[in-house]
């Protein structure tokens, strides 16, 4: 597989952003060009960037197994939001980045060939993209994601983080049930009868975000939204996320005919 590390300046963000891609080498194409391959958007967490998944997991091996193109963008500590300062990271993720990949690389997968997943902050972003734009993605995965804003312990005790989150989201007390709350996205998707048949969420039982993942699971059950939920021992750690991305891909691509030799 080839690793492409590049920088570009999206109009929606107005600053230089790193972007990492994993694509098959020409000898591995096996007659399946980039335009016809499944594409996985893989999102990083709060303290990471586009390089994290490649550094800390075996994602290149998983990409080879399934013949995937993997797109790993960088969004800083934005929580994949369109910010008040004019830096629109969510717009970048769901609109400008796919357009850029098509125009530069010829990558334009249909919905049935497009997956999105992420860890922690990236799990929040992946579910946001999939639930607000189910027409773009056939499968979505969250690993140790912030999947509900409906409990008070989202508000951090650390004053600097509180200031940061209030800059991103506004008054933290107003977040439950707001347009930033994953529960709101779930209810909106359910009301539209969106096809959400391949949602995956996982979390370690020792993770501080375990309770909000249980809340997300329970809300999916209440709304009759199918969710493959996996809980395991462990905390907020890369060894768990490496296992979970492998499990998510096996779940999402289980229909057969997806694996590519080489």
What is the structure about, briefly put?
The chain has 262 residues and is an alpha/beta fold.
Task: Lay out the secondary structure.
Layout lengths: L1 E7 L8 E7 L15 E5 L8 H5 L2 H8 L2 E5 L15 H17 L8 E6 L1 H12 L6 E5 L15 H11 L12 H10 L7 E6 L5 H13 L5 E5 L5 H15 L10
N→C terminal distance: 9 Å
What is the percent of helical residues? 25-40%
Label the CATH architecture: 3-Layer(aba) Sandwich
Main sheet attributes: strand count, strand direction, barrel closure? 8 strands, mixed
Number of domains as seen in the coordinates: 1
Structural category is: alpha/beta
How many E-type strands? 8
Q: Please identify the top-level CATH class.
A: Alpha Beta
CATH superfamily: Alpha/Beta hydrolase fold, catalytic domain
User: Strand content of the residues, in percent?
Assistant: 15-25%
Total helical elements: 8
Strand order of the largest sheet: 1-2-4-3-5-6-7-8
Mean pLDDT: 90
From the alpha carbons, calculate the radius of gyration and give it in angstroms: 18 Å
In the CATH scheme, what's the topology name? Rossmann fold
In N-to-C order, the SSE pattern is: EEEHHEHEHEHHEHEH
From the spread of the alpha carbons, the general shape counts as globular
Low-confidence runs? 256-262
What features would you highlight for this structure?
262 residues, alpha/beta, Rossmann fold, 8-stranded mixed sheet, 8 strands
Structure write-up:
This protein is α/β, with parallel strands linked by helices. The protein has a single domain, classed as Alpha/Beta hydrolase fold, catalytic domain (Rossmann fold, 3-Layer(aba) Sandwich), CATH 3.40.50. It has an 8-stranded mixed β-sheet, sandwiched between helices. α4 runs parallel beside α6. The longest helix is centred in the middle third of the chain and has 17 residues. The termini are close together.
